[in-house]
């Protein structure tokens, strides 16, 4: 066959190809803040006022390059908020906002990094005498337990299996990979201190022993005490329940201790109810997971300050996930801690 005839046939085949450029579905984006309050809350589990507050705080850090169809700060915030609060597949979040799944992933990582950098503005222990006295007053109103400045405990946040060296150290006593997160909360369920750097196999007592907050208590930075469970050693500034109370005074102490310390369990329940990614687990890399946990703590505190109601659209009970804590082995109290606790009981629980 003539070579020219072959070339002509190739050209005809090319003409038959559909060279029409497909419309870019990712370029059609609606401002979510144009939704009604009800629709916004349904999509993002928070009020529009709450979303606008976050955008206002992060806007300067989320300013976008006007080239190449960028994401506005509003879209970036709601993508992260929906992904963390609903814990849905990122492809669904991407389709809803006219972007791709990798863009949603990068956006969530970016928002988490910014919020974690700003965490000290929102997560902090009471420092002034008036702040500490007010915190102590609120705790005492729960069960008449005096001088409490915080309730401490750890919770395991599930992460995907770590295959790198040392990955087995993330496996906790229940057999799944996790980060063991230490939290201190106040009587309003706000998070005042958070530590996210420890792997799931690490015991609660070690996390506290090596944290900055312990050093501050030992230096006398606070006028009150912490309440913890029997997974911590009893010290002059961290009281635990009595293992075998034998007197009415000791029983009153234990009852009051349990009711007051329960605030941290309620804090975990509320925190995970708001952000289902904490309840069901993180799928990203470990460092992003740690920053996301801190970011969700910041947003949790903001939600309490703004009196955000917990979204009621999803009714599965938080108790089925949080009412079976990982059992901690009993840690014997220190001599000084035991003496201090005995004096405390004799003074306040007669």
From TrEMBL:
Give the domain of life.
Eukaryota
Q: What is its main location?
A: cytoplasm
Q: Which GO terms describe its cellular component?
A: cytoplasm; nucleus
Q: Does the keyword Nuclease apply?
A: yes
Pfam entry (one): DDE_Tnp_4
Q: Which residues form the DDE Tnp4 domain?
A: 152-301
Q: Does the keyword Cytoplasm apply?
A: yes
Query: Where can this protein be found?
Result: Cytoplasm; Nucleus
Q: Which UniProt keywords apply?
A: Cytoplasm, Hydrolase, Metal-binding, Nuclease, Nucleus
MF annotations from Gene Ontology: hydrolase activity; metal ion binding; nuclease activity
Q: Which cofactor does it need?
A: a divalent metal cation
Family statement drawn from the similarity comment of this UniProt entry: Belongs to the HARBI1 family.
Q: What does this protein do?
A: Transposase-derived protein that may have nuclease activity. Does not have transposase activity.
Q: What is this protein called?
A: Putative nuclease HARBI1
Source taxonomy: Eukaryota, Metazoa, Ecdysozoa, Arthropoda, Hexapoda
């Amino acid at each position: 066959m003539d070579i020219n005839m072959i070339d002509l046939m190739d050209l005809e085949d090319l003409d038959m190809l559909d060279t029409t450029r497909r419309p870019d579905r990712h370029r059609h984006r609606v401002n979510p803040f144009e939704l009604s309050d009800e629709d916004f809350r349904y999509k993002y589990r928070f009020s529009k006022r709450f979303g606008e507050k976050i955008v206002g705080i992060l806007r300067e850090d989320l300013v976008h390059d006007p080239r190449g169809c960028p994401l506005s700060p509003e879209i970036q915030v709601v993508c992260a908020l929906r992904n963390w609060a609903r814990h849905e597949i990122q492809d669904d979040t991407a389709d809803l906002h006219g972007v791709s799944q990798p863009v949603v992933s990068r956006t969530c990582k970016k928002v988490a990094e910014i919020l974690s950098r700003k965490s000290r503005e929102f997560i902090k222990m009471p420092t002034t005498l008036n702040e500490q006295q007010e915190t102590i007053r609120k705790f005492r109103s729960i069960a008449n337990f005096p001088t409490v400045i915080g309730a401490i405990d750890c919770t395991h946040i599930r992460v995907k299996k770590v295959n790198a060296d040392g990955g087995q150290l993330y496996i906790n006593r229940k057999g799944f990979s996790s980060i063991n997160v230490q939290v201190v909360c106040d009587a309003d369920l706000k998070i005042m201190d958070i530590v996210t750097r420890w792997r799931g196999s690490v015991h609660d007592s070690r996390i506290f022993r090596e944290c900055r907050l312990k050093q501050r208590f030992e230096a006398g930075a606070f006028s009150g005490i912490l309440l913890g469970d029997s997974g911590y050693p009893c010290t002059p500034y961290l009281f635990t329940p009595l293992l075998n109370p034998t007197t009415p005074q000791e029983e009153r102490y234990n009852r009051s201790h349990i009711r007051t310390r329960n605030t941290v369990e309620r804090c975990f329940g509320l925190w995970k109810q708001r952000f289902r990614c904490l309840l069901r687990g993180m799928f990203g890399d470990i460092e992003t997971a740690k920053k996301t946990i801190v970011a969700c703590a910041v947003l949790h505190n903001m939600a309490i300050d703004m009196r955000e109601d917990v979204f009621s659209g999803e009714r599965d009970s938080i108790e089925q996930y949080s009412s079976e804590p990982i059992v901690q082995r009993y840690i014997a109290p220190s001599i000084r801690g035991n003496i201090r606790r005995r004096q405390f009981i004799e003074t306040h629980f007669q």
